[in-house]
Amino acid sequence: MPRLLLTPGEPAGIGPDLAVRIAQHAHAAEIVAVADPALLRERAAHIGLPLQLDPVDYGAAPAPQCAGRLRIDPIPLTRPATAGRLEPDNAPYVLATLDRAVDLCRRRSADALVTGPVNKAVINQAGFAFTGHTGYLAARCESPAPVMMLTTDDGSLRVTLATVHIPLAAVPSAINDTDLAHTLDTIHTELAARFGIACPRILVAGLNPHAGENGYLGHEEIDIIGPAVEAARARGIDAVGPLPADTLFTRHHLANADVVLAMYHDQGLPVIKHLGFSRTVNVSLGLPIVRTSVDHGTALELAGTDRVDCGSLEAALKIASHMVASSHGA
Ligand SMILES: NC(=O)c1ccc[n+]([C@@H]2O[C@H](COP(=O)([O-])OP(=O)(O)OC[C@H]3O[C@@H](n4cnc5c(N)ncnc54)[C@H](O)[C@@H]3O)[C@@H](O)[C@H]2O)c1
Ligand SMILES: N[C@H](C(=O)O)[C@H](O)COP(=O)(O)O
């Protein structure tokens, strides 16, 4: 049975609600909230749900999660949190929960990290350069650039990104043969190791409209993306493209594909979030630890209400367990 660490993320957002809500039923995994216990108790009381927090024992074997209970690894908030109101002083708390979870996963006291949503702006406002979990975790793990992948819970669509949290204007200059080679190698290796998909077919999107229309609408496809796909194929990777992004996400192309590589955040993610918001999971490929996350943000306006959908977190827990099993060769 896996031990999954859950960091609820931004304390003013819906992350604490999610932790309380997923504790209401049994799971086939031990789930440990790395969080402030008072925050979780207060949010549980606020939404009128029972919650018993039991201290985790990392020296003992993981035990299944019982309804109404959650294991806790306590990290104190800097300031009391109010649902819906961001507090920059709590940014170090958010980062401390991630630091603790990464350390535990790296020393094998836990099997995987499942993250709730954070607010990137408030962390930056507090003085920490932060573009998202993915980059932060890579730095903590001293790992080369991981690849962000969003997958529906049933694997019907998987989307990876060549560039992630950078301004749109910076995208063209961030696309280069070295990074594309690393990204394609990581997708190829990680889908086999963590998802059991040997030699996945990767559909590679172009950057420009109609994949550059033979150079009349842009040159990145001819100069960079096409050669990167050819070089990957020569390494035994089943990459196809560059394909026009507007028609790549149609049944015809997706029927025989395992994953899409989009060139930038808003080329790929709106498609998968439109298809499966609240049952889609964010997975970091290429980290030395298993990490999954929800597909949504902090939804500050919903914190402490009865309108919080736990589907993405449930899926993130499930996929993390499958990845752990797959990584162990189960
Ligand atoms: N994994 C993460 O840490 C992560 C992911 C995405 C966005 N974010 C951050 O979250 C913040 C807010 O982003 P946003 O407003 O673009 O997106 P959001 O996902 O917070 O909200 C988008 C819409 O979806 C609704 N929604 C979101 N999650 C929901 C849930 N579980 N149940 C019901 N409704 C839900 C919201 O109410 C809102 O209408 C930003 O700072 C962004 O960077 C974090
Ligand atoms: N791009 C992600 C999404 O839209 O779901 C999100 O911002 C989270 O990114 P990190 O996993 O790097 O925090």
How does this structure look, described?
- The chain is an alpha/beta fold.
- The chain is 38% helix and 18% strand.
- The chain contains twelve helices and twelve strands.
- The chain has a twelve-stranded mixed β-sheet with strand order 3-4-2-1-5-12-11-6-7-10-8-9, with helices on both faces.
- The chain is globular, with a radius of gyration of 20 Å.
- The site of 4-hydroxy-L-threonine-5-monophosphate has 7 residues, from helix 5.
- Homodimer.
- It is found in: Cytoplasm.
- It catalyses: 4-(phosphooxy)-L-threonine + NAD(+) = 3-amino-2-oxopropyl phosphate + CO2 + NADH.
SSE order and pairing:
Layout: E1 3-7, H1 15-22, E2 30-35, H2 37-47, E3 52-55, E4 69-74, H3 91-106, E5 112-115, H4 120-125, H5 133-140, E6 147-152, E7 158-161, H6 171-174, H7 177-195, E8 201-205, H8 220-234, E9 238-243, H9 245-248, H10 251-254, E10 259-262, H11 265-276, E11 280-285, E12 290-294, H12 311-327
Parallel strand pairs: 1-2, 1-5, 2-4, 3-4, 5-12, 7-10, 8-9, 8-10
Antiparallel strand pairs: 6-7, 6-11, 11-12
Helix pairs in contact: 1-2, 7-8
The protein binds nicotinamide-adenine-dinucleotide and 4-hydroxy-L-threonine-5-monophosphate.
Residues 132-134, 269, 282, 293, 295 line the site of 4-hydroxy-L-threonine-5-monophosphate.
GO molecular function, one term: cobalt ion binding
Subcellular location: Cytoplasm
Organism: Salinisphaera hydrothermalis (strain C41B8)
